[in-house]
Design a protein that fits this description.
Layout: H1 2-9, E1 15-20, H2 26-38, E2 51-57, H3 64-81, H4 83-88, H5 95-105, H6 109-134, E3 140-146, H7 157-170, E4 176-183, H8 186-193, E5 201-205, H9 211-229, E6 234-235, H10 237-247, H11 251-264, E7 269-270, H12 272-280, H13 285-300, H14 305-316, E8 322-323, H15 324-330, H16 335-347, E9 352-353, E10 360-362, H17 366-376, H18 383-386, H19 396-399
Helix pairs in contact: 3-6, 5-6, 6-7, 9-10, 10-11, 10-12, 11-12, 11-13, 13-17, 14-17
């Protein structure tokens, strides 16, 4: 990504797309990249850049026009907050006012289409004019679009960005780069919008950390804590392994389990019991992660208890592949209900079908399975704990809570 910045600096703009599962660290990586691009920190090769960075976060309700509006407003904010850019940009930029005028001017569907095209031209012109004004003083403009998977295909994000880059290129502006981040479903969303949209980007699929990398993250975190707190907190190998196993290599999960274990520790030596207490107690790691990542999928999107029963059975198998035949044999459910459940869970991306193996599915993560078991089946130890010989979560007394 930093090499792509260097290419953009030299007049060969390159765009990237970060994709992966929730909690893999996409937004965090985008944040660090913004710091590098803007010159707030040096890059890994000690290079220093001076890009104007424009941050945009998309929502499910965003449309083609609202995305363009966010791109315009984002540039406006960045220019106003960047002292050097304010000195260099010569023409007062009233894009938002012109947008409102255009919104009133065009009412019919055909006129709306004209408005969208003109609006795109307006946005591109604003960016290219800015690049012309800052040329020789700043490196260019980096647009960072997070949550790119959120808008539906009807927002035509892929066509919008392809049109943006083509217009910018035709104008002779070669110092604008775009970075996207989103859950991997963004690939299909962009493709549906325009079959060539993905060619605009170099895609990076962020994958989980290895166990060794996860352990290194834990140790670095404790070293940082020692510098801040002025005392040392140690961690046992068993605790490191347990945190690593729970997190499945997902950085946000790793942060949550590590933080909760650190909070549960009382003797500056994080051991297995501290990890268990931090994970399972009220307001612990599983509860936090469930609220952030899984609860909406599990409770809000699934209205049928029978559908949830399918998920409970699959949770027993962690993230292993499970056949429809196995599910049918394990739970009491009508064939039509089972078919509906599997179809709905697949469409909502709560379970994943196995390509080339009809009737075979799995949960996306072991952590999803552990969460489903922990919060729906009861106090029986989930497979994650059984696998390493732990007999169960701490008792209410051990956890310091009667509401476990």
């Amino acid at each position: 990504m930093e090499r792509m910045l260097a290419h953009t600096l030299r007049g060969n703009p390159q765009n990237f797309l970060l994709h992966g599962e929730r909690g893999i660290g996409k937004s965090s990586l985008m944040y660090v990249h913004r710091l590098v691009a803007s010159g707030e920190i040096t890059g890994l090769d000690d290079a220093t850049y001076s890009f104007i960075t424009v941050d945009v976060t998309l929502e499910p309700s965003d449309s083609y026009d609202s995305i363009l509006r966010k791109l315009g407003a984002g540039l406006n904010r960045s220019l106003k907050s960047h002292q050097k850019a304010k000195e260099l940009v010569k023409v007062a930029w009233d894009f938002l006012k012109r947008f409102e005028v255009m919104g009133v001017k065009y009412n019919s569907a055909s006129e709306k289409s004209v408005m969208s095209s003109e609006l795109l031209d307006e946005v591109v012109q604003s960016y290219t004019t800015t690049c012309g004004d800052i040329a020789g003083f700043l490196d260019g403009v980096l647009i960072l679009i997070d949550e790119a998977d959120k808008p539906g295909a009807e927002a035509n994000l892929g066509a919008l960005l392809k049109g943006f880059t083509e217009r910018a290129s035709r104008s002779g502006s070669n110092s604008i780069a775009i970075g996207l981040a989103g859950v991997s479903t963004v690939l299909e969303t962009l493709r549906q919008s325009h079959e060539s949209a993905l060619r605009v980007f170099t895609a990076f699929n962020l994958k989980p950390l290895s166990q060794a990398e996860s352990v290194e993250v834990i140790r670095r975190g404790l070293r940082a804590a020692q510098e801040e707190n002025k005392f040392e907190t140690r961690v046992t190998p068993d605790a490191e392994s347990l945190i690593s196993m729970y997190s499945e290599g997902y950085p946000h999960f790793l942060q949550q389990f590590s933080y909760c274990a650190f909070e549960a520790d009382e003797d500056n030596n994080i051991d297995r019991e501290d990890v268990l207490k931090g994970a399972w107690e009220e307001h612990g790691a599983f509860e936090h992660l469930g609220t952030k990542y899984f609860e909406g999928l599990y409770f809000e999107q699934i209205s049928s208890d029978e559908y949830r029963e399918v998920l409970r059975f699959m949770a027993d198998r962690l993230d292993e592949w499970v056949t429809k035949k196995e599910i049918r044999a394990a739970i009491t459910i009508k064939e039509s209900t089972l078919n509906n459940a599997l179809r709905a869970l697949t469409q909502r991306r709560i379970i994943r079908p196995r390509t080339g193996y009809p009737g075979t599915y799995r949960l996306p993560l072991k952590s999803v399975a552990a969460w489903i078991k922990a919060y729906t089946i009861g106090r029986e130890p989930p497979p994650l704990l059984k696998d390493i010989g732990i007999t169960g979560p701490p008792t209410s007394t051990e956890a310091g809570s009667d509401n476990q």
